[in-house]
Amino acid sequence: MDHFLYKDGALHAEDVSLAQIAAQVGTPFYVYSSATLTRHFKLFNEALEGLPHLVCFAMKSNSNQAVIKLLGDLGAGMDVVSGGEYARAKAAGIPGERIVFSGVGKTRAEMRMVLEGGVRQFNVESEPEMEALSAVASELGVEAPITIRINPDVDAKTHEKISTGKYDDKFGIPISRAREVYAMAAKLPGLKVIGIDVHIGSQLTELAPFELAYNKVVELTHQLRADGHTIERLDLGGGLGIPYERSNTAPPLPMEYGALIKKCVGDLDVEVEIEPGRLISGNAGLLVTEVIYLKNGENRDFLIVDAAMNDLIRPAMYGAHHDIVPVVEPAPGVETSTYDIVGPVCESGDTFAKQRTLPPFKSGDLMAFRSAGAYGAVMSSEYNSRPLIPEVLVQGDQYAVIRARPTFDEMINRDTIPEWL
Ligand code: LLP
């Protein structure tokens, strides 16, 4: 459920009309609903009630300061994967003890920064990373709390570009070698082993792969404890999928996912962390765009809109589907048309949807891409020198621009021309 509904024939984000935002900030823009973000975060919290837990929002899905602050104020931790994300979390007021540092390629500089600023734990992904962290922590005279991310060799049954839990994926340490790697960690100075981490992929639409992976983690917990390690925390990753197509069956709900977690690890006397991103932010955001032209091709009609692949790359990159809705509610029974929805970028891949059946659109009409709050703005670029588009946050009847559209000068002035040119 989200808070983007038609009221009096006009699509609203909570109590604010999208046409009104468009008139003020111009198109295209991202708009997020505070109520939806809050609701989704709370669903996970409630789903894990009864277990000691922390829900760490995967900031890679949406790292705007306002979004982080909103979730942080509700008690969320943050899952960060770079020095930049760590700096964003800290700037939004998230205390170090609620920040988890994930990622396969942490640099020593990032490790230093995070150790100095405070961190809940590092999710370590390889032996060389472990050695580097041991060296950096020892240099600073501190102990780095770590979990080791294991690769359980489980098929997440999702898009191959976002599947992370098979042996052929670059992530984690093969579970077959986990015991020897934990033994190595226990001997290294500057490290404190506290648990196990696993994350098998994103946009999972079934619980079965989670169950397979979590059961492997449970078995490993028993083995590692028998080997003498302290396993007091399990980071079970993110990845629960969202309904991108309203017409399709919906993926499992957070409550069902939480019940699975309780079933698998409820008896282990551990603290549980999860790292959801998409389910919290995805359906909390829309991308609103204006039709520039309706162009009649030989075989098809193109709606050329003012958003492009640089603003929302998911369709071009993963062939992802985003539901498209008009900002003005169509009259009941209106005759539909079939369009290709494309952006202005000079590549045929700049296509949001092919042969989509929609109510009729004409130049100047506004449309919204749904489910764009996750992996939308964060993956955008200035390709074709198109300035990054604004982000707007709505709460009830109020809204604010939470990232402004840069001017052409601001964009251009980041370049410097050397004096010898
Ligand atoms: N934890 C780790 C270690 C991750 O790698 C990810 C996502 C998450 C948590 C959050 O997963 P989520 O709950 O959001 O599914 N750009 C792609 C998605 C990439 C996901 C990468 N890792 C997309 O647009 O579909």
Describe the protein in words:
With 421 residues, the chain is of the alpha/beta class. The chain folds into two domains: 4-31 and 282-412, Beta Barrel (Lyase, Ornithine Decarboxylase, Chain A, domain 1), CATH 2.40.37; 34-279, TIM Barrel. It contains twelve helices and 21 strands. The strands form three sheets. Strands 4, 14, 15, 16, 17, 18, 19, 20 and 21 form a nine-stranded mixed sheet that branches. Strand 17 (337-342) and strand 18 form a beta hairpin. The N and C termini lie far apart (56 Å). Ligand LLP is lined by residues 58, 60-61, 79, 102, 162, 199, 202-203, 237-239, 275-279, 314, 318, 374-375. Residues 29-373 form the Orn/DAP/Arg decarboxylase 2 C-terminal domain. GO terms for molecular function: diaminopimelate decarboxylase activity; pyridoxal phosphate binding.
The CATH homology group name of the largest domain: Alanine racemase
Question: How many structural domains does the protein architecture include?
Answer: 2
What share of residues are in beta strands?
A: 15-25%
* CATH topology descriptor of the largest domain: TIM Barrel
List keywords for this structure.
single chain; 421 residues; alpha/beta; Lyase, Ornithine Decarboxylase, Chain A, domain 1; TIM Barrel; 2 domains; nine-stranded mixed beta sheet; eight-stranded parallel beta barrel; 12 helices; globular; binds ligand LLP; pyridoxal phosphate binding; pyridoxal phosphate; lyase; EC 4.1.1.20
